[in-house]
Amino acid sequence: MKRIIVAMLLILVLSFACAPAPSSELGASLATPVNGSKLSSATPVLSWSGIGGPTSYRLQIASDSNFQQIVVDVNDIVDIMYTVPSGKLNDDCTYYWRVNASKEDLTSAWSESWSFSTPGGQPAPPPPASKSSIQVLVTLDGAAWSGGIHYRITGPNNITGSSVTNTFSDIPAGEYAITYQSGGPAGANLASVTPSPSQTVENGATVTFTLNFHTQSTSSITVSATLNGAPWSGNVYYNIKGPFQDADSAVPKTLSGLPSGDYTLVYQRGGPAGATLNGISPAPRQHLGPSGGNIVYTLNFVTAPAAGNVVVNATLDGAPWSGQVEYSLSGAITDIEHSVPATLNNVPSGYDCTITYKSGGPANAQLVAISPGPTQKTTTGQIIFVLDFRSQQVSGSIMVNATLDGKAWQTAIGSGAINYTIVGPVTDSDSTIPQTFGNQPGGKYTLQYNSGGPIGATLTSITPSPVQQLTANNPNLVYTLNFSGQAKGTVTVQAMLNNEPWSGPVGYVVNGPYMESGSSVPNSIGNAPSGTYSVSYSSGGPPSSVFQGVQPGSQSLQPGGQIQFVLYFKFEGVQPEPDEPLIGAGGLPPKN
User: Fold this and answer.
1) What is the mean pLDDT of residues 102-117?
2) Which CATH architecture does the domain made up of 133-214 adopt?
3) CA terminus-to-terminus distance, the chain
4) Neighbouring residues of 253: CB distance < 8 A, sequence distance ≥ 6
5) Which residues contact 278 (CB under 8 A, 6 or more apart)?
6) Is the peptide bond prior to 252 cis by the omega test (within 30 degrees of 0)?
7) pLDDT confidence band for 9 (50 / 70 / 90)
8) Mean pLDDT of 438-451
9) pLDDT beyond 80 at 257
């Protein structure tokens, strides 16, 4: 029994030892000619050995170590050697060669590259060693996947891959980008490339491109083009950005099995010769729904037509006018202008051009027409738009008021004279407050204060503004002259008879900034503005007396102050008896 068990174990061990190598060990190892050899023939025999039981090999020979200049590229070699045919290699040259291995759907990375020299050449140093590498992986709905898929890696080395998982070794450092071409998991679509479709490979480092596929969408994107409205096909470079990203160089093109989301088409260059892109319809950015469907991008190209000029003029009441006016142009050209006259050059011909008036133009005028019409078809010559304005007949009234310390004030005897001027389309001067000027034509008016106003007061402002515009919308202008008064004082008038105070009827006039007539003394006049005052005697006074004068002759009244004038009289009549009253009723001596 023990012998049977031992025999069975021995059989199991032998079966594992004879099992084929895992696919991850698939590859090729170069054998002859050894690296850096100087050959005696330009038709050498190249040999190698296989790793992992490959069924075919691919051989490349290049004249540069980066394999950009390939002179021999042979697929499906079933032997482990290859004789280079005559005429493929030149004498006195150095070449580099490498091999990869394939088995079923798997393809290995390239072997390390060796060099050899054909007769007449010098032995070449081996290519610079590089341990940098690129690994390509695929996921399906987040899980690892392996199988046939076609992609291209561009950079210092251009690499074409047909399966994953795959690692490309001994590549020079630099910027590399991967582009998905076809294949991958059946019924799935590429959703993204992580961490990025473009990466930098550092010396001695390894970067990984992971192509992530999803199976939940059956939607597609179609890219087409037109030339002057007719379908067009050919070379044009564009990028598609979104959940799936792609770059292509031809139209029409349909990409199927795409994930849902927002997509943007970005035009790069190319298209019909002599044409320019006039737009992407229906829009450069579109949404692809999750339940399947198709979105279509159309690149619309137009050939450049012959160009002409567009001229914009204006008239006022039939006469040419120039100045500020805002209008827009649309159709053959899109523009906003702010003045006339204006000329716009190099406008494509054969298209409708429409002008739209926005605002501005001559003062107190309105647009009545655009001639010959607001829309014209452009030509190789010149088209002219004329904005026709007509003056508006505007009239209104202008009122001038005044205030003194915030209260209404008007001109009156003793209030103070005032002079002002209204300057505008009609100019007028006046001295009366309040005052109204009727039937004034429209336009800009300015109120100018000249002099005067309330006695002892100062002009502080003109409201709402010294300058106003009389228009159809504002036909009644009101100006208010605002004055601020000074503190008022008092003027007192007394009388003396033979140097003794006397009171009674007497006529006099107070002259100064404020004027008043008096009929008796003593008398005080309040609310008098500051300034120089004097008193003039007119009539009356004590009976049987003679007026001798006023003292002082004139005085200056300060704001809020007080001054006094005295009328002097001298008695010249018969003195009454001691028992008789000096003055009878009415100021006359008593009758006998």
Assistant:
1) 90
2) Sandwich (2.60)
3) 192
4) 222, 223
5) 300, 301, 302
6) yes
7) very low
8) 90
9) no
β-bridge mates for residue 438, sequence order: none
- Min mean pLDDT across 17-21, 271-275, 579-583 is at 17-21
Closest CA to 420 of 441, 405, 442, 435: 435
Question: For position 324, what pLDDT does the model report?
Answer: 95
For every residue of 549-575, which 3-state class applies, written as one string?
Answer: EEECCCEEECCCCEEEEEEEEEECCCC
Mean predicted confidence (pLDDT) in 48-60: 88
Q: Which of 90, 96, 98, 79 is nearest to 41 (CA)?
A: 90
Mean pLDDT over 37-45 rounds to 89
Tell me the CB-side half-sphere exposure of residue 569, using CA atoms within 13 A: 24
Strand pairing report for 219-227 and 294-303? parallel
Domain 489-571 maps to which CATH number in 3.40.50.720, 3.40.630.10, 2.60.40.10, 1.25.40.10? 2.60.40.10
Q: Is domain 307-391 in CATH 3.30.70, yes or no?
A: no
The residue among 381 and 3 whose pLDDT is bigger is 381
More confident residue, 121 or 171: 171
Encode 121-163 in three state secondary structure.
CCCCCCCCCCCCEEEEEEEECCEEECEEEEEEEECCCCEEEEE
Average pLDDT, the chain: 85
Give the C-alpha separation, 297 to 279, whole Å: 10
Whether the per-residue pLDDT at 322 is higher than 60: the answer is: yes
The answer to whether the beta carbons of residues 310 and 346 sit under 8 Å apart is no
Q: Kindly list the distances between the CA atom of residue 32 and the CA atoms of 39, 110, 332, 516, in Å, as whole numbers in the listed order.
A: 11, 16, 72, 138
Whether 416 has a pLDDT exceeding 90, the answer reads no
**Percent of the chain having pLDDT more than 90?**
52
Q: Of 550, 569, 410, which Cα lies nearest the Cα of 493?
A: 550
CATH architecture of 395-478: Sandwich (2.60)
Domain-by-domain residue ranges, the chain?
32-117, 133-214, 219-303, 307-391, 395-478, 489-571
Between CA 212 and CA 503 the distance in angstroms is 122
Q: How many CB atoms lie within 10 A of CB 348?
A: 17
Report yes or no: 314 and 387 within 8 Å, Cβ to Cβ. yes
User: What's the average model confidence in pLDDT over 515-539?
Assistant: 89
- Superfamily name and number for 32-117: Immunoglobulins (2.60.40.10)
Q: Is 219-303 the same fold as 32-117?
A: yes
Decide: 223 and 239 in contact? Cβ < 8 Å.
Answer: no
What are the tens digits of pLDDT across the range 454-496? 887 889 899 999 999 988 778 899 999 998 877 788 999 999 9
Q: Report the distance separating Cα 415 and Cα 514, nearest Å.
A: 8
Q: Could you tell me the CATH superfamily of domain 219-303?
A: Immunoglobulins (2.60.40.10)
